[in-house]
Amino acid sequence: MPTNPAVAAPAPAKPAPAVPAKPAKPAAPKIVRDPKWAKPWQTHDDYVGMKSTKEAPKKVDTSPGIIHKFVSIFFGSPKGERDPKWAEPWQTHEGTRKATEPEAHKPPVTPAAKPAPVPVVPVVKPAPAPAAKPAPTPAPAPAPAPAPAPARAPAPAPKPAVVPKPAPVEKTFPSEPAGTSPAPPVATPRANIPADVPKATREQVLAKVEEEPTAPQKPPPQEEKEQIVVVPTAVRSRVNLEATLGLDEPSLDASIRTDPISDASLRELKKIYETSIKPLELLYKYEDISNRHISDPELFAPPMVLVLGPYSTGKSTFINYLLGNENTKRALKTGMPPSLGVFRVVQYGESDRELDGTDLSAHWSFQSLSKFGQNFIDQLKGKQLNNPLLKKATFVEAPGILEMRRPGERIYPFNDVIQWFIDRADIILVMFDYTKLDAGYELEAILDQLKGRESQVRILLNKADQIPPEELIKIQGSLFWNLSPLLGVSVPPTVYAGSFSSRPYKANSPAKLFQAQEEALLGDIAKAINNRVDNRIAIARRHAVRCRNHAQMVDTYLNTYYKNKGFLTSKHKLSEDIIENPHSYNIYEGMSMLTNISRYDLPDPEVYRDFFRVHNLYDFQTLKETCTYIKGCPLHKIDAAITQELPELLARYHRLMDQAMAAPGMKPLYNQDLPSPGAGVGQAAAHTETS
After folding, report:
1. pLDDT of residue 79
2. Of 122, 270, 444, 607, which shows the fewest CB atoms inside 10 Å?
3. Strands in 244-339 per DSSP E
4. Collapsed DSSP state (helix, strand, coil) of residue 249
């Protein structure tokens, strides 16, 4: 069948337009979960740390209201003790509890039946038994005949004694002596524990141990080491020593009459110092130019005996010998090694005891020692003893001198402290040993401080009985000439040789020579003790002379200043020129022209240069300006004290002492004033050696 070509052959399809390809989408990034969201919210850190939003419970005010307060004010409340039955809440009150208990639970109450009567059985008492008759006593049997004594058996022969073998001794090391090792612990048998006893767990036991702390064990008390006292078999007699130092009965009786006179004289001396010497001293500031002052300790303190010297020369032994404390527990510690480098003060006290530096510095006679610092106070020791000699004098022992010490190594001003004791000592004893005769750096410095006090210094050569007699003169002579240039005198010092202890002298030693020199030394010590008032008056007179010279020196400086000062002159420059060049203005030459003043008694210009740097020259008054119509002139008062009052006081004291010693039955002058001196006493006393 023919087909239509138009229908049979369809038209070719048009090609589709090319669509551009879409770019591929990028892959989605992988989401990593935050680790903080891995936990549940209940245990999350942020939730746990959040504060609770719950409101705190409000406090209910239980105080009564306004109406209740108003009613209680006007009507009050009954006062009285509350019934104890209302102290318990009503819910638990006994009355309420009984009322609320149900009656159904109570058992019915039925009357109990009466018990049947118990039949009474009659008791039949037994008839009493007849008393038994005593049995007849048997006849005594005849005594048996004594048996014959057995024959004595012969004694057996003695067996030979068996010698026990010595127990083997175990060897020990040298550092572990035998018998000191601790014994091994002994095992104690364990007690049988019952089976029914409950056992505590390990945790309970540990908790109990922790709750009960162990108390610290106290160390065993250490036994005090007693001082070993070795008493020699023979000692020397102390009769001469006690008689020389005034420790025997007649001397003690005489001191009862003379002590009130000494005290009255010292009180009069203080009065002269306060009225005649001290005003001029304060006006011209004498305390800033000198270390020597007058106060109650310098006037009323007992005499001081100062002992110096190298170490281990017998200073402590000598003090023990004078006090009679050798070979007793009251004695000062002695020994060959050097001491601890402390100053030791031995003074009187009602009871025996040791004193430290703080106690001594608080004492009225040693208060000025505090100015040397705490390091020195720590090096100051004292001993208080009830001894009759300490009522008359105080002994001070300086530390032993070590010559190999570096200069300035001490922790306190040693030379200044030595000077303090030298200024207040009545007698100074410098002790040497025959093995220690050389003078080193420190000893030279101390001997230089003794210049001007040669009359108070005594040199002791101890342990001289150990020197051969033919060598004694050589050693004593070498000590003479070694110390003479150091003391600054041409005359050799006084040297006493001997053995100053209670032990007897050694054989073949010049005992009579040693005894004579010891008596001379004791006489010097007794003289220094008995001349207490004389020494105090001499100290006051020397102090007054120095104050007068100082005041006149300042007055000379002032007169030179006013003489050279013009209208337009600078007072500061002029005073500085006068202070720096005193010789250009003839100041010292003008002082030498004044009466009663020596050029050699005046301080050096360097001393006044330092003094006027502290105090301005133009701030002082001249001597004429210090005079007033009512009080008079201070210079005239101090001149009268030097030339009249102090010599009269000394002469009066000697006259009263002679009267007291000549009349043993005279009563002590406790409250009597010193009588006025007679005519001509002042002139005679002016020649007394008091300076």
Report:
1. 58
2. 122
3. 304-308
4. helix
By the 8 A CB rule, do 256 and 668 touch? Answer: yes
For residue range 37-50, what is the model confidence (pLDDT) as tens digits? 677 777 767 666 66
- 356, 382 in Cβ contact below 8 A? yes
Long-range contacts of 629-633 (CB under 8 A, 24+ apart): none
Ramachandran angles phi, psi of 320, nearest 5°: -60, -35
In order of 79, 93, 96, the CA distances from 88 in angstroms are: 19, 6, 11
CB distance 671 to 279 below 8 Å: no
Q: How far is CA 645 from CA 80, 676, 691, in A?
A: 91, 11, 15
Q: Are 308 and 429 in contact (CB under 8 A)?
A: yes
**Domains of the chain from N-terminus onward:** 241-301+533-691 (1.10.268.20), 302-532 (3.40.50.300)
Integer angstrom CA distances of residue 266 from 29, 286, 294: 116, 23, 13
Residues 317, 335: Cα–Cα separation, whole Å: 9
Nearest CA-CA partner of 555 in 284, 287, 278: 284
Q: Show the tokens assigned to 600.
A: 């050699």
Which tens digits make up the pLDDT trace of 370-407? 999 999 999 999 999 999 999 999 999 999 887 655 65
Residue tagged 């130092």 (tokens): 245
The sign one gets for the Cα dihedral 579, 585, 591, 594 is negative
Half-sphere exposure of 156 (CA within 13 A, CB side): 3
Considering only CA atoms, which of 340, 334, 337 is closest in space to residue 228? Answer: 334
**Cα–Cα distance for residue pair 232/503, rounded to 1 Å:** 7
Position 594 scores a pLDDT of: 76
